[in-house]
TrEMBL record:
InterPro entries: CinA-like_C, CinA_C. This is CinA family protein. It comes from the Bacteria. Residues 10-156 form the CinA C-terminal domain. It comes from Kineococcus gynurae. Coiled coil: none annotated.
Length: 165
């Protein structure tokens, strides 16, 4: 479950550091915005391993190990694809937590999904999870809201942050 309140990047970096965990990002619709948001925090290098922007569908398989058959059958806007992206980036970059974003930023539909359809993938020492988001707004707003939801999802995994509980 994603916390209702906003989570700042600084809070998340501090929570990861307190746990002694590292994070890596696998991004499609956010195009690097999630990783950039994290590395804006002073001291982020202690927890951020890096990120992979796999915007093109075939790169999700080539760089992140997503099942190519799954991509052919379901396309990139899919919960299992998000989980596989997260697991792939965590494994390839040696992180405790992988967070992935895939979906449709808009302005129009793509692959049969309306703008605002987003799947977050999480990989962590206990397994993988995904969260579906149905967002509204313009392209920039959907991307921004996806980043905030991703921060909140990792915070929830960590048990929240002081301001997110």
């Amino acid at each position: 479950m994603i916390p209702a309140g906003p989570v700042t990047p600084a809070e998340l970096v501090a929570a990861l550091a307190a746990r002694g965990w590292t994070v890596a990002t696998a991004e499609s619709l956010t195009g690097g915005l999630l990783c950039a948001t994290l590395v804006d925090v002073p001291g982020a290098s202690a927890v951020v391993r890096g990120g992979v922007v796999a915007y093109a569908t075939e790169l999700k398989a080539d760089l992140l190990g997503v099942d190519p058959e799954r991509l052919r059958e379901h396309g990139p806007v899919d919960a299992l694809v998000a989980r596989q992206m997260a697991a792939g980036v965590a494994a390839r970059l040696g992180a405790d937590v992988g967070i992935a974003t895939t979906g449709v930023a808009g302005p129009g539909p793509s692959d049969g999904h309306p703008a605002g359809t987003v799947h977050l993938g999480l990989a962590h020492p206990g397994g993988t999870a995904s969260h579906r988001l149905d967002l509204t707004g313009d392209r920039a707003g959907i991307r921004r809201d996806t980043v905030q939801a991703a921060l909140a999802a990792v915070a929830a995994l960590l048990g929240g942050t002081p301001d997110a509980r």
